[in-house]
Amino acid sequence: MNTPNHYRTIVLSDIHLGTKGSKAKEVTRFLKMNTADTLILNGDIIDGWQLKKSGEWKRKHTKFMQRVLKMMSNHHTKVIYLRGNHDDFLEQFIPMRIGDLHLVLEWIYEGANGKKYLVTHGDIFDSVTSKMAWLAKLGDIGYTFLLWLNRIYNEYRSKRGLPYYSLSQAIKAKVKQAVSYISDYEEKLVGLAESKNCQGIICGHIHQPVIKQYGNIEYLNSGDWVESLSALVEDFNGEWSLVYYTDSKTSNMHDIVADSNDDEDDEADLPMDLISIQKRLSA
After folding, report:
1. Residue 84: which residues within 8 A CB-CB, separation 6 or more?
2. Structural contact between residues 231 and 35, judged by C-beta atoms closer than 8 angstroms
3. Which tens digits make up the pLDDT trace of 28-82?
4. Cβ–Cβ under 8 Å, residues 112 and 238
């Protein structure tokens, strides 16, 4: 059995558990083959908006939560969970700490290289989600349709032996207004990091994985597990990289299948407070 890659830190965001578009199985497999001293869950891990409407919590969503708990127990992983806009129901519990699990609005992370990074989901600078929630939820309906179309398109590609292709990402890249919005979003977050005397910003929210430099500030976006299937990882020298599920899944599939039996009886390990949150959102 291959040894999992071990990093100093892994950052995941925008998994949207509770929705059909969430790649819950893929992100769980990713965490089976990639471990870390610190796991940052940077918002929109659970999609409360969809669970209140037409979403459905499935076993594969529970398995992701179990995988995180296993990382905490088996690898002593410290987990930082930041509230996003789709899991804003968690705000009533913030700040909270249970052992190595921290539930926060934002976090200052110190890298192995001594740099300080402001960690935030990023919706604070989205005027639609922060000031016009009704419009954001209307837009969410359109985005859900786009993801449905993306799923149908990739099922067609899969049957023909073609690789995954994010149709929704391609559409967004073609729209000038979307490109302008992303650039403005990045610049505002860079300014926020600078105002807090940080040398970098780690965010999610807009489903655009990237690492780039804005002057003296490093901008890192972990992407998502709906379209991009991406994560940020930091090695023990303080170097950050973007990794994608397609980069690592094929060589370790035998180990993943063999390990999958370990999760069959794990649902009893899920804390009661998480079960109650799940039931409340599904009601």
Report:
1. 13, 14, 42, 43, 44, 45, 121, 123, 204, 205
2. no
3. 999 999 999 999 999 999 998 788 887 789 999 999 999 999 999 999 999 999 9
4. yes
196 three-class SS: coil
Residue 47 structure tokens: 């999609």
Amino acid at 77: T
- List all residues 6 or more positions away from 126 whose beta carbon is below 8 Å from its beta carbon: 85, 136, 185, 205, 206
Contact in structure between 7 and 36 (CB atoms under 8 Å): yes
First to last CA, the chain: 42
CATH superfamily entry for domain 5-282: Metallo-dependent phosphatases (3.60.21.10)
- 205 Rama class: left (phi>0) / alpha (psi -120 to 50) / beta: left
Residue 265: which residues within 8 A CB-CB, separation 6 or more?
A: none
Q: Would you kindly state where each structural domain of the chain is located, as residue ranges? A: 5-282
Query: Is the Cβ–Cβ distance between 109 and 40 less than 8 Å?
Result: yes
Helices vs. strands in the chain: H and E counts, helices first:
10, 12
Amino acid making up residue 164: Y
What's the chain's average pLDDT?
A: 80
